[in-house]
Design a protein that fits this description.
The complex is a heterodimer of chains A (180) and B (97). Chain A is 26% helix and 35% strand. Chain A has a 5-stranded antiparallel beta sheet with strand order 1-7-10-9-8. A 5-stranded antiparallel beta sheet of chain A has the order 3-4-5-2-6, with helices on one face. In chain A, strand 9 and strand 10 form a beta hairpin. In chain A, helix 1 crosses helix 2. The longest helix of chain A has 19 residues. Chain B is mainly beta and 97 residues long. Chain B has one domain: Folate-binding fold. Chain B is built from 1 helix and 6 strands. In chain B, strand 1 and strand 2 form a beta hairpin. The chains are: A alpha+beta (180), B mainly beta (97). Chains A and B meet through strand 8 of A and strand 2 of B.
């Protein structure tokens, strides 16, 4: 049975699931002083609030843990960003690991995006519980993902490269239900 | 699904967590001075409490942090969770459900 309120599925255009361009990614770990210095060097305020992301221009910083942040920048920024962070953090204990190629990003978009992700993610993705700007590491079925709500009906998924085929396959399979 | 309150992220589904065994077991300050019996107890002997039990959990597929929880082993009810390093909260009977 189909829900008359639900938008018609857009699988044929595949607009609901799109790979995002390659990006520069760093995992930053460090205390408050290091986070402050990294914020200035990276140009994005590293969020101090749990499970929130900050965006400035084409760069973003995502809170993953109390001392752990995921920094995302355009692919071409890799060298400049790495140099700026290294210079600013020279005398402060911290760790920065380049994970640009460890994971790939997808965007799930559309009025059914929330429903589609809810098929495999145990979190409550309702906007009241998972508002725009919230991000977290979680699971999609058996794979670990980083989920970030970038818009009311737009989510960014960061998936470890070797899990991507599984996650995308399961998303496509779940989407079949929208056509029923 | 059982929700567990992560001290950092708030209530999250049980799927994201990993169990870490009994909490508040301190490693002997100077292992070379510990007797064989003390070392054995540190390594292997654990309580098997019926009722409220302090244990370690890790938000493995979330923020990745270890924390401690007091759980009722008979009902699986989480009474309270608190950050690692904090003292165990006073015993409470709130667990029975």
């Amino acid at each position: 049975m189909s829900d008359p309120k639900r938008q018609p599925p857009r699988i044929e255009s595949r607009a609901w699931l799109a790979p995002l361009p390659a990006a520069t990614r760093f995992i930053f770990r460090g205390g408050a002083a290091a986070a402050q210095a990294a914020s200035r060097a990276f140009g994005v305020e590293l969020p101090a609030t749990a499970c929130r992301a900050n965006v400035a221009g084409a760069r973003a910083a995502l809170w993953l843990g109390p001392d752990e942040q995921l920094l995302i920048a355009p692919e071409g920024d890799a060298t400049a960003a790495r140099a700026a962070l290294a210079a600013a953090l020279e005398s402060i204990p911290h760790s920065i690991v380049d994970i640009s190629h460890r994971q790939v990003a997808f965007e799930v978009k559309g009025p059914d995006a929330e429903w589609l992700l809810q098929a495999g993610c145990p979190l409550d993705l309702d906007a009241s519980q998972f508002p725009v700007g919230m991000c977290t590491r979680t699971v999609y079925l058996k794979a670990e993902i980083t989920l970030w709500r970038t818009g009311a009906d737009t989510f960014r998924l960061e998936i470890w490269r070797s899990f991507a085929e599984y996650v995308v396959g399961m998303l496509e399979e779940s989407a079949l239900e929208l056509t029923a | 699904m059982l929700l567990i309150e992560c001290p950092y992220c708030g209530p999250r589904p049980e799927l994201e967590f990993a169990y870490g065994g009994q909490a508040h077991i301190a490693r002997p300050a100077d292992p070379s001075k510990a007797s064989d019996q003390e070392w054995l107890e540190f390594l292997y002997l654990r309580d098997n409490t019926r009722g409220l039990f302090a244990e370690r959990w890790r938000h493995a597929r979330g923020c990745g942090r270890f924390f401690n929880a007091i759980r009722d082993t008979t009902t699986d009810h989480f009474v309270v969770t608190y950050k690692a390093g904090e003292a165990r909260p006073a015993p409470t009977a709130g667990g029975a459900r």
